[in-house]
Design goal:
The structure is a single chain. By secondary structure, the protein is an alpha+beta fold. The chain folds into 2 domains: about 35 residues, no CATH class; about 90 residues, Sandwich (Immunoglobulin-like). The chain is about 20% helix and about 30% strand. The protein has 3 helices and 7 strands. The strands form 2 sheets. A 4-stranded antiparallel sheet has the order 1-2-7-6, with no helix packed on it. It starts with 6 loop residues before the first helix and ends with a helix.
Length: about 150
Amino acid sequence: MRAYDLSPLYRATVGFDRMTDLLDRVMTQDTGGTTYPPYNIEKTAENAYRISIAVAGFTEDELSVEQRETELVIAARKDKDETQRTYLHRGIATRAFEKRFQLADHVRVTGASHSAGMLHIDLVREVPEALKPRRIAIESATPSAIEAQTVEA
């Protein structure tokens, strides 16, 4: 993997610290990271998303979903099985995990559900009214108003 120096970005921009930190973090992450548990990210509407994570073997009590500012943290802690089991083949992994997702500005979690071994987390992007585009009315100048301004000058 190539190493990129992002220091020129820090010198030439103001207010983009979070974006450059995110780029720096992505570039320095190990590309052979864990793929457990498998997950999907889908766009369900114009401003709505869903993260689905395969969590077979976990109950709702063993799962936690937490939003910390712009980071979504999904964790699972498996309680110790009190009965000693002997597996002939163990293909279902139920080990503890923690998944982290970076969320864009104004994205918040609206709900989470657990069914059929899948954890579904619904997200929505809510852009504040102040940041939405607004239409500016254009007034037509009447000839008498223009003449009045000319006379005053």
